[in-house]
Design a protein that fits this description.
This protein is an all-alpha fold. It has one domain (about 1-435). The chain has 17 helices and two strands. The chain has a two-stranded antiparallel sheet with strand order 1-2. Strand 1 and strand 2 form a beta hairpin. Helix 7 runs antiparallel to helix 9. It is globular, with a radius of gyration of 22 Å. The relative contact order is 0.11.
Length: about 450
């Protein structure tokens, strides 16, 4: 704290620096010969993997199961846990210890995003996050082991179960199925235990600890939930159900994806398609086999992501809700945007618009740069945009010609993806923290003038 005070670093900078520091340490550890099966040091692969794990993305330039040793896989697991859990807890602990010096608006921001209304809530929040994380991952690992142990044996089966449970809860997407030449969870497309367990962990991790605290406290009484929880749960449910229905419509008769499976498998597979693209890079059907419409829907879901205060990335469900409700209100000539008999505060729309603009601008610019770099590689625009959105949305899905595209990209393109993963993990929340700084009183009000929009 003394160093931070001397340097006068704002909280936003502290968050970015902490994530960067974890990436540096993770890269150094993965560069140890013992971390890879062949003992060779590949700096770019180590940097890419460390960034992907810390930023809970799941993209990988090498196969996680066959390239990395058990030691390397353990490092990746720890990085995933720190990336998914640590950013939130570190932020909470930071404000807990400096609350006497932190500005009121900064403390208010943390409490609002966490769904608590008093400072004591920060202590409860940290404890609650740890309890929920350990409980969910433990139960998830046990359920997954019933399927994995049967196929892989006790040693690999248990390790795969723990690794996948942590990866799913942290909305990451790393798997170890490469041991058997499989892509992600494709071999378990008709296994309800694996599919539903992974999806449940993804949803719980992506909704946020604070919302689940509200649900546990108030049970099924939706009216008792706070405003944040209502918006998150409603938006999440709509995205899952609408996405599920659309994927069934787009892919039901697609022979390249699920057209050859029975009805039950199709329903289960499309449910996974709807849940996992929102920042968890698991799939039971290779993304490259989806129809054009299915691929575009996946990109949209990856861009939206999960909810604030969770392990997920993307622009967040609340950003989408603010933009959509504000657009509807404007079209109806309403002066205020409101839902559930509450209106959004004055900062909500500017913050949401800024986050959306930054993300969409980054996607466009980086997609163009990668397209220029890979001009002779034969990759389509759809594949490149898919990869870029997957990186900035911290998803981990890839749309390659066979399985994944990431490992086929040149070093320059992979560096851009590293930047996007970092931006996707710290960018949105950092922007909100920047907005939380106290505003200086404005003594002069400029004259308004007309501007034609649209």
């Amino acid at each position: 704290m003394t160093t931070a005070k001397k340097l006068k670093l704002p909280p936003a900078a502290m968050i970015a620096i902490s994530v960067f520091a974890v990436i540096v340490v993770g890269t150094a550890l993965l560069c140890i010969p013992a971390a890879s099966n062949d003992g060779q040091v590949d700096f770019l692969a180590a940097l890419f993997t460390a960034t992907s794990a810390t930023c809970v993305t799941g993209l990988s330039a090498v196969d996680t199961a066959t390239h990395w040793s058990y030691f390397g896989q353990a490092i990746i697991l720890v990085l995933m846990q720190i990336g998914g859990l640590g950013l939130i807890t570190i932020l909470s602990v930071f404000f807990l210890y400096v609350q006497k010096r932190a500005s009121l608006s900064q403390r208010k921001l943390v409490m609002q995003s966490a769904g608590f209304v008093n400072l004591e809530g920060i202590k409860k929040l940290v404890k609650y996050i740890i309890i929920v994380t350990v409980t969910c991952e433990f139960i998830g690992a046990i359920l997954l082991s019933t399927s994995f142990v049967r196929v892989m044996g006790w040693g690999r089966g248990i390790w795969q179960s723990v690794f996948t449970a942590v990866s799913a809860f942290c909305n990451c997407g790393f798997t170890l199925t490469g041991w058997y030449g499989e892509d992600s969870l494709n071999a378990y497309i008709s296994d309800p235990v694996v599919c539903l367990t992974v999806c449940s962990l993804v949803i719980i991790g992506g909704i946020g600890f604070f919302v689940w605290g509200d649900v546990i406290k108030n049970g099924i009484h939706f009216r008792r939930y706070n405003f944040h929880s209502k918006v998150v749960l409603t938006t999440t449910a709509c995205l899952i159900l609408v996405g599920w229905a659309l994927f069934m419509a787009f892919e039901w008769n697609n022979p390249a994806s699920i057209g050859g499976h029975d009805a039950g498998t199709k329903v289960l597979a499309t449910f996974v398609m709807s849940v996992c693209p929102r920042t968890a890079g698991f799939n039971t059907v290779s993304s490259g086999t989806l129809s054009g419409a299915g691929g575009m829907l996946t990109i949209v879901l990856m861009f939206i992501g999960g909810s604030p205060g969770s392990t997920a990335g993307g622009i967040k469900t609340t950003t989408l809700a603010v933009l959509v409700i504000s657009a509807i209100s404007t079209s109806r000539r309403r002066t205020e945007a409101h839902i559930f008999r509450r209106r959004f505060d004055d900062d909500a729309l500017p913050q949401a618009s800024t986050i959306f603009s930054v993300y969409i601008t980054a996607v466009i610019i980086c997609a163009m740069i990668i397209s220029a770099i890979e001009v002779n590689s034969g990759f389509t625009t759809h594949q490149i945009v898919f990869e870029v959105v997957s990186a900035i949305g911290t998803v981990g899905l890839s749309c390659g010609p066979e399985t994944t595209l990431t490992g086929l990209l040149t070093g320059g393109s992979q560096v851009i993806l590293i930047f996007l993963m970092f931006l996707g993990r710290v960018g949105g929340f950092t922007l909100i923290l920047v907005f939380s700084n106290e505003r200086k009183p404005v003594s002069i009000s400029r004259v308004a003038d007309n501007l034609i929009i649209g």
